[in-house]
Design goal:
CATH architecture: 2-Layer Sandwich
Number of strands: 12
Shape: globular
Number of helices: 8
Strand order of the largest sheet: 1-11-12-2-10
Order of helices and strands: EHHEHEEEHEEHEEHHEHEE
Structural class: alpha+beta
Distance between the termini: 12 Å
Oligomer: single chain
CATH topology: Alpha-Beta Plaits
Strand content: 15-25%
Largest sheet: 5 strands, mixed
Radius of gyration: 19 Å
Length: 270
């Protein structure tokens, strides 16, 4: 599978990235300039994005499909209630056993996400004896290192913050929808009330104040792991996750270099 990233490669990449970041005076921009750029974000006064590097990891085996993360995100970020608007959502994958007598090692793959997984999932209509594997996959903005959305935005409303977040400044967004079309992960939508593009911001108003994103806070299975690469803590969960797991990213062939890492993810997930 060409989307596998070995632990050695990932740890080396993280170490190299941190070394490079530390060697830059202010990540090629003065703190004052960055703060001006983030004027439309909910970061507190004095927050320095050049001193942080946020990362999200997801352990697929730990997700139970309860949908509490989706509900928490909707509430925390005032996401429109309609079932077509989500900053994060959960998909269920059901891989059926192959037909008898064939050469296939697995059968049909069924994917559903009723109401974004909010409220959980009803039992599958596929008989248990026909299922090879079933699992849940949380989805959100992939925090691309090379963001197609930022490249597509004609006015700079979508931008890459030095701390790893990809943000939307609604005061500059003109609602053209170019970023929505450019996102290969389907992570953006047009807010029907504000008429501006919207997506997961990692709960920027929370993480810049030392709190976890709402989805991480409420996850009962601890499927979502969040941390700061530039400010690791004792027994750092991010470092531990990368060290213990073979990690994957979605659609690596696109060259977006996502900063959302998955463990125990099946090759059928895209």
């Amino acid at each position: 599978m060409n989307f596998v990233i070995s632990r050695r490669r990932m740890l080396g990449a993280l170490a190299g990235a941190l070394g490079w970041i530390a060697s830059q005076p202010v990540a090629k921009a003065s703190k004052a300039t960055v703060q001006k750029l983030l004027a439309g974000s909910p970061a507190p006064k004095g927050y320095d994005p050049t001193q942080h590097k946020w990362l999200m990891c997801i352990d697929v085996d730990r997700c139970i499909g309860c949908g509490l993360c989706v509900d928490a995100c909707k509430t925390e970020n005032h996401v429109p209630e309609a079932s077509s608007f989500f900053r994060t959502w959960v998909e269920r994958y059901i891989i059926k056993k192959p037909a008898d007598g064939g050469n296939d090692v697995r059968g049909e793959v069924l994917v559903d996400s009723p109401n974004g997984g909010r409220g959980g999932f009803q039992p599958s209509l596929v008989p248990r004896e026909e299922i090879l594997r079933s699992f849940f996959v949380p989805k959100l903005c992939n925090l691309c290192e090379h963001s197609p959305c930022a490249q597509a935005c004609p006015v700079g409303a979508t931008f890459d913050s030095p701390d790893g977040a990809v943000l939307v400044d609604p005061t500059y967004c003109i609602g053209c929808g170019f970023c929505i079309q450019a996102c290969p992960y389907g992570c953006r939508f047009m807010n029907p009330h504000t008429k501006t593009a919207e997506k997961c911001s990692l709960c920027y108003h929370r993480i810049t104040r030392g709190l976890k994103p709402a989805c991480v806070e409420v996850c009962p299975g601890h499927a979502r792991i969040f941390g700061d690469l530039k400010n690791p803590v004792e027994n750092d969960p991010i470092q531990e996750f990368v060290r213990k797991n073979k990690v994957f990213t979605l659609k690596p062939h696109l060259g977006t270099d996502p900063r959302v890492l998955y463990a125990n993810m099946d090759k059928e997930v895209r």
